Amino acid sequence: MSGSLDVFLARRWEDLVTLTLQHLAVVALSLAIATVLGVLIGLLVWDKNVPRTAALTAAGIAITIPSLALLALLSPVLGLGWAPTVVSLVFYSLLPIVRNTVVGLREVPAHLIESARGMGMTPAKTLISIQLPLAWPVIVTGIRVAAQLTVGIAAIAAYVAGPGLGLYIFKGLSSLGSVNALNFTLTGTICVVLLALLLDGAFVLIARYSTSRGLRV
Amino acid sequence: MSEPGVGIELSHVTKLYAGQQQAAVEDFSLSVHPGELVMFVGPSGCGKTTTMKMINRIIEPSSGSITIDGQDVLSLDPNELRRHIGYVIQQIGLFPHMTIAENIATVPKLLGWSKERTNDRVDELLRTVQLDPAVFAHRYPKQLSGGQQQRVGVARALAADPPVMLMDEPFGATDPITRQKLQAEFLKLQADIGKTIIFVTHDFDEAIRLGDRIAVLSERSQIEQFDTPANILANPANDYVSSFIGHGAGLMRLALIPIGDVELDAPDSTAPAVDADASLRDALDLLMVTGAERVNVSGGGGSLTHARISAALSKARQPVEAS
């Protein structure tokens, strides 16, 4: 029934590379936006009880909304393609990033902050040169979790004509029983998994090289 | 080159935390001379640390005034103020993500010193606290022992050569041997630099060993006695101070009296010898250990008996004016 995989790949590998790059691009863009937004929210709420609980609860509830439902809700407002995809990926990335920013900042020992302030650092300077660098390894871990999450969710965004490998998966799904249905789904899925692994590896390196050696020794 | 200390004046300083009935520090007045090392000693929770932290406004006083070198600290920008007050805390507080050199350069950087001047200063300070710059400058705090970290903490506080230092149990977390070594080094350093230092501790022995004067504090940072170690040991102001001194006050006092300060008998070269710059406690120790009747002071032109040592103690018991 199914066409042979090697013929399938030989015919479509250029297509596949484009889709993979698109997939990577939409994930990277969303992560970048979510990192800026999430760290900012974390900075605003980490030391205030009520706002912190509110932010983490809201992000926690948000992540339980099924991605298909969210895309269906966004599409009437934002149309099809990149816009609803990016918005939904940012949405799901916020929880791990905000949560880890909060945890990371709260883990900075109070005596280090006192030591910095006691030497005459302003609150802003203390935040930038002491608190954020010390919280950074935890924040990066949050971004890494968000990356894993969004690589998978991005595939579903093909439902609203989003960019990326989801196109193949949905193609396979909608043409069940046809010659290449399995090839489409299989190729799309494997590429998504490979991309997730690659990204994870990249984040291990990013975490390593963006963290002070003093925190690793 | 080092800038000498300046005077600190606290008058009627009170700290009352919101929602609390009793003040943490109540009507505290104290005057510290330039270049003096004043110990605040008292039990945990007596307000000694709170009192100290009001000087660099880590804690803002509720009322009263604090001046450093005649200048009202409450009228200054707190960040600017703190850059000119050395600050050492018990947990040391070295920044783990910065090298030793970067840690020491913290305040010079805030003050906008040039790279060259900062680097020179870092090297100079590392040598001052007996750490080889070539070995330690580019290490991270975690790669140093507790004692070495504490030295870096002191070097960092001295970086911009502040006239005043505040030290909150700086040697509290080190083991007894390291602690004694750090104390001795610190005394030697202070003899060179002559900073005005407020040093908080709950360890009375440490207060005796280091302080020019000691303020014995009780609850709400009330001053029970403020005097030299010798005077406090010889004439404790009240039961509270006596109980704080605990047992062995006589021996503690002997440790503070150099042999050079007492009258000696004629030399006796057959007796065991004690160093001329040792203390009476060392002389007594030698008497006990050897069982001899007297010890000879080597190079000091005399000898000491048990009676002489006792006499020196009772002489010191007469009230002495604080210098």
UniProtKB/TrEMBL annotation, chain A:
<comment type="similarity">
    <text>Belongs to the binding-protein-dependent transport system permease family.</text>
</comment>
<keyword id="KW-0472">Membrane</keyword>
<dbReference type="GO" id="GO:0005886">
    <property type="term" value="C:plasma membrane"/>
</dbReference>
<dbReference type="InterPro" id="IPR035906">
    <property type="entry name" value="MetI-like_sf"/>
</dbReference>
<dbReference type="Pfam" id="PF00528">
    <property type="entry name" value="BPD_transp_1"/>
</dbReference>
<dbReference type="InterPro" id="IPR051204">
    <property type="entry name" value="ABC_transp_perm/SBD"/>
</dbReference>
<dbReference type="GO" id="GO:0031460">
    <property type="term" value="P:glycine betaine transport"/>
</dbReference>
<feature type="transmembrane region" description="Helical">
    <location>
        <begin position="53"/>
        <end position="74"/>
    </location>
</feature>
<dbReference type="GO" id="GO:0055085">
    <property type="term" value="P:transmembrane transport"/>
</dbReference>
<keyword id="KW-1133">Transmembrane helix</keyword>
<feature type="transmembrane region" description="Helical">
    <location>
        <begin position="181"/>
        <end position="206"/>
    </location>
</feature>
<protein>
    <submittedName>
        <fullName>Osmoprotectant transport system permease protein</fullName>
    </submittedName>
</protein>
<feature type="transmembrane region" description="Helical">
    <location>
        <begin position="134"/>
        <end position="161"/>
    </location>
</feature>
<keyword id="KW-0812">Transmembrane</keyword>
<dbReference type="InterPro" id="IPR000515">
    <property type="entry name" value="MetI-like"/>
</dbReference>
<feature type="transmembrane region" description="Helical">
    <location>
        <begin position="20"/>
        <end position="46"/>
    </location>
</feature>
<feature type="domain" description="ABC transmembrane type-1">
    <location>
        <begin position="20"/>
        <end position="203"/>
    </location>
</feature>
<keyword id="KW-0813">Transport</keyword>
<feature type="transmembrane region" description="Helical">
    <location>
        <begin position="80"/>
        <end position="98"/>
    </location>
</feature>
UniProtKB/TrEMBL annotation, chain B:
<dbReference type="InterPro" id="IPR017871">
    <property type="entry name" value="ABC_transporter-like_CS"/>
</dbReference>
<keyword id="KW-0677">Repeat</keyword>
<protein>
    <recommendedName>
        <fullName>ABC-type quaternary amine transporter</fullName>
        <ecNumber>7.6.2.9</ecNumber>
    </recommendedName>
</protein>
<dbReference type="GO" id="GO:0016887">
    <property type="term" value="F:ATP hydrolysis activity"/>
</dbReference>
<dbReference type="GO" id="GO:0031460">
    <property type="term" value="P:glycine betaine transport"/>
</dbReference>
<dbReference type="InterPro" id="IPR003439">
    <property type="entry name" value="ABC_transporter-like_ATP-bd"/>
</dbReference>
<keyword id="KW-0813">Transport</keyword>
<dbReference type="InterPro" id="IPR027417">
    <property type="entry name" value="P-loop_NTPase"/>
</dbReference>
<dbReference type="GO" id="GO:0005524">
    <property type="term" value="F:ATP binding"/>
</dbReference>
<feature type="domain" description="ABC transporter">
    <location>
        <begin position="8"/>
        <end position="245"/>
    </location>
</feature>
<dbReference type="GO" id="GO:0015418">
    <property type="term" value="F:ABC-type quaternary ammonium compound transporting activity"/>
</dbReference>
<keyword id="KW-0067">ATP-binding</keyword>
<dbReference type="InterPro" id="IPR005892">
    <property type="entry name" value="Gly-betaine_transp_ATP-bd"/>
</dbReference>
<dbReference type="Pfam" id="PF00005">
    <property type="entry name" value="ABC_tran"/>
</dbReference>
<dbReference type="GO" id="GO:0016020">
    <property type="term" value="C:membrane"/>
</dbReference>
<comment type="similarity">
    <text>Belongs to the ABC transporter superfamily.</text>
</comment>
<dbReference type="InterPro" id="IPR003593">
    <property type="entry name" value="AAA+_ATPase"/>
</dbReference>
<keyword id="KW-0547">Nucleotide-binding</keyword>
